[in-house]
Amino acid sequence: MLNVPIGVFDSGYGGLTVLKEIVKVLPGYDFLYLGDNARNPYGTRSFKVVYEYTLQAVKYLFSQNCPLVIIACNTASAKALRNIQQIDLPVIAPERRILGVIRPSVEKVSEITKTGHVGILGTTGTVTSNSYPIEFEKWSGGRVESTVQEACPMWVPIVENNEIESEGAEYFVRKNIMNILEKDRNLDTLILGCTHYPLLLNIIQKYVPESIKILEQGEIVAEKLVDYLQRHTELDSKISKNSRVEYQTTEVAQNFEEKASLFLGKPVKARTIHL
Ligand code: DGL
Predict the structure, then answer these.
(1) Is 194 a known active-site residue?
(2) How far apart are CA 263 and CA 178, in angstroms?
(3) How many angstroms is it from 14 CA to the middle of ligand 1?
């Protein structure tokens, strides 16, 4: 059976929160998920390293027939996507496409914010890259006039170690939310700018006033992808549609399978590959 899947890449498990939402809106499509678990987290790594790792992953997914790759990782979208799109893609595969998670989030927030004051929660890498403020400047059409950011370096390890229900989770989520609320008292939208953060939503909601909208990226990326495929019918027609979702990891498959079920809420089978 011809397999021409949409590639979905993340540094590890987090992108599964994005994949889950994409599969809901495109259930007939084939997907190949790749988690670079052997080398994550990316959130604390330099630009150069995140770029090199992400480029390797994209090349691999192209070698597996993917005509379109979604970088379902904020850190990789922040630190590698633009370079790969502008420098590498025209040379290695001009007919293929790569999309990230930051631009769709920026577009969505620009549509819904009323005060134009937006908060971004992300990894240290995403925050220090300044990608969100830069993209808002470019794409919000002036609708977002002020952004504040907060790096939450403890949130990913909390989720990955399944400490979501712990006192530690409560402590760190409260601390970071209080910090960002303090930075701007007129916020009306808060972006969960990291793939893992939706898993902490119940705690986050406790500390965020109801007047502030909390934005999860999975649904937004999924909605924007449907729109993108409708506008790019030639690309859409290349993708095979047998409802097949494959999971690959650069780590031991069994480890991936155990943790992936936490993110997906169901068991999956994975395969180990080498980049
Ligand atoms: N997937 C990453 C992100 O969205 C978080 C995990 C990591 O640091 O690798 O930023």
Answers:
(1) yes
(2) 26
(3) 7
**If you average pLDDT over residues 11-32, what whole number do you get?**
97
Q: Which of 26, 194, 200, 212 is catalytic?
A: 194
What average pLDDT score do residues 170-189 get?
Answer: 98
CA dist 70 and 99 (Å) reads 5
| Pick from 81, 128, 86, 84: nearest CA to 103 | 81
> At a CB cut-off of 8 Å and minimum separation 6, what does 206 contact?
174
| Mean pLDDT on 101-129 | 96
**Band (262; pLDDT cuts 50, 70, 90):** confident
Distance CA 254, CA 256 (A): 5
Structural domains in the chain plus CATH codes: 6-100+219-272 (3.40.50.1860), 102-216 (3.40.50.1860)
- Render pLDDT for 122-149 as a digit per residue (tens, 0 to 9): 999 999 999 999 999 999 999 999 999 9
pLDDT at 1: 77
Q: Kindly list the protein residues whose Cβ atom lies closer than 6 A to any atom of ligand 1.
A: 10-12, 14, 40-43, 73-75, 123, 126, 156, 194-196
